[in-house]
Amino acid sequence: MLRIILGVIGLSSGILLLEGLRPVPIVVAQVKKDAPKGRKIAVLVGVNQYTNRPYENLRYAERDMERLKEVLEWGGFEVVMLLGSAKGNDEATQKNINDLLFDKSEKNKRYLLRDVTENDTVLIALSGQGEQIQVKVGGKETEVPFFCPKNAETGNPSTLISINSILEALDQKKPTSLVLVDACRKFVKPVEGKKSGASMDRAKVQSLRDGIGVMFASSDRQETVESTNVGGGHGLFFYGVLEAIKSATPNKQGQIVWEQLVPQIRTKVSEASEYVGVAERDRQRPQYIGNFSKDIVICAATKETIKMVDFEYVTEGKKLKSKCEVMEIDYGGGIKMEFVKIKKGKFMMGSPKEEKDRDENETQKEVEIKADFWMGRYEVTQAQYKAMMGENLSRFKGDKLPVEKVSFENAKQFCDKLNEKVNKKFSLPSEAQWEYACRAGTKTPFHFGTTMSSGLANYNDMFQSEPKKKNKTQVRTTDVGSFPANPWGLFDMHGNVIEWCTDWYDADKKQIVVRGGSWVHNPDYCRSAKRGYNFPLARVHDIGFRVCFPVD
């Protein structure tokens, strides 16, 4: 079942979309008899490793479902996820799938379709191995597509999940329904004497009612493929689905709807097949059957607002006022990020020889920033990080505190997550971008002048040679934005947490540049020109980051 083509792994996978998808026991209360109308439910099933041979194990089926879960939850879906690697009720076994979708008995409290109505939307996504088996349905032989749960037996329909049966179950309940199946459709001879679980023939699949659709990752009798070379590792089909969502143009209501995605998914899958070296005759050709008189809203696009913002900054002890152009991106769920537009220009990077506490690696040179870019107005907060990554790694806890104890790799992964939601090309700033934005046109050691003192930044003044102005915030991080902005409207460019950049510090590419100093550093380490460094996997309680992206 598994083909190797230029490092590409043949995949049999399928998708179910329904409700609340988590690697924790399914909460039955997610579906209530008095649930309001218009609910959006998704069931996702992914299997990487199989119990029985000859099924080949996969690498990315479960990852595909985890990524899809994030998108659907953003779109307001209640998500239930079954994975081959999970345990108990969350394991992707035939029984658990049957309990969710087919077993209507009163004793089965996990049946998710019991109270679904025609006003609801149900999405089922399956990713794993699949088979197409010829069975008797209605007295005639017909080939039926099946999805293989973790404990499937090849050629034995009684151990598989019939796609037709899923469609029939949805047809009976009448919700607006979409089924996505990333699983091989290669013909498998049935085991003699085994009964089929199918109850619909191919003719019925071809003539679905309005409001129900199914998209297969491949055409009839075709295998599907997964590869490490697309998006860091995906099945080509769900890679196409996720990429289509990411690049889709919202409708007038700011929504990403299903029908606009169909042609894009086909294009993305075809392009990915070609990219990973699949021969023309073997390239996946997703098959879609469906008709919707009303839109299925997959997710809402983020809200973007650009405005001019007044702010105060300090220069050599004087308070001044200015304005900056700020883009606010609302990701929903109360999570927003603000970015300041930084205009291109030239500046002297590094420090002059006479600057106090300068290091030899701060050789001064003229650098040109050739394009405008948007820079995070604040360091990434713990609330923002947790919303995107599902965890908070910080030592000091607080939603408005900057996230810390994040490695360079963690920071890059955060940028990847942002890019999955908004196609902005988010990244960490380069070292040149960081210093250019920090200086904000100034030439002094700090953007607020020649010396650092309490009230200007969160730093450690314990060993400060200047007259003592005790900095009472030196023992931990502080909420972002607690100190004055720089002349371009950016906060905490000096102190609080030191920030990852994209550049390698050394020629051997073992350590990454960090900039800005932190709450544990004395003033010389917080200077605009100071170049720090650390290992990419280092997680320290004074290292965080901010993100940027190019102006369109």
Helices, strands, pairings?
Blueprint: E1 4-5, E2 8-11, E3 40-46, H1 61-74, E4 78-83, H2 94-101, E5 121-127, E6 130-137, E7 140-147, E8 161-162, H3 163-173, E9 176-182, E10 187-188, H4 202-206, E11 212-216, E12 224-227, E13 234-235, H5 236-247, E14 255-257, H6 258-275, E15 287-291, E16 297-300, E17 303-315, E18 318-332, E19 335-342, E20 345-349, E21 365-369, E22 373-376, H7 382-389, H8 408-421, H9 431-439, E23 498-504, E24 512-515, E25 532-534, E26 543-544, E27 548-550
Parallel strand pairs: 3-4, 3-5, 5-9, 6-10, 9-11, 23-26
Antiparallel strand pairs: 1-2, 2-12, 6-7, 7-8, 11-15, 12-13, 14-16, 17-18, 18-19, 19-22, 20-21, 22-27, 23-24, 24-25
Task: Give the key terms.
6-stranded mixed beta sheet; 5-stranded antiparallel beta sheet; 26% strand; paralog of FGE (formylglycine-generating enzyme); alpha+beta; 552 residues; 2 domains; 18% helix; Rossmann fold; single chain
Notes on the protein architecture:
By secondary structure, this protein is an alpha+beta fold. The protein has two domains: 4-24 and 37-300, Rossmann fold, CATH 3.40.50; 304-550, paralog of FGE (formylglycine-generating enzyme) (Alpha-Beta Complex). The chain contains nine helices and 27 strands. The strands form seven sheets. A six-stranded mixed β-sheet has the order 4-3-5-9-11-15, with helices on both faces. A five-stranded antiparallel β-sheet has the order 17-18-19-22-27, covered by helices on one side. The chain has a four-stranded antiparallel β-sheet with strand order 1-2-12-13. Helix 5 (236-247) packs across helix 6. The longest helix is centred in the middle third of the chain and has 18 residues, at 258-275. It is elongated.
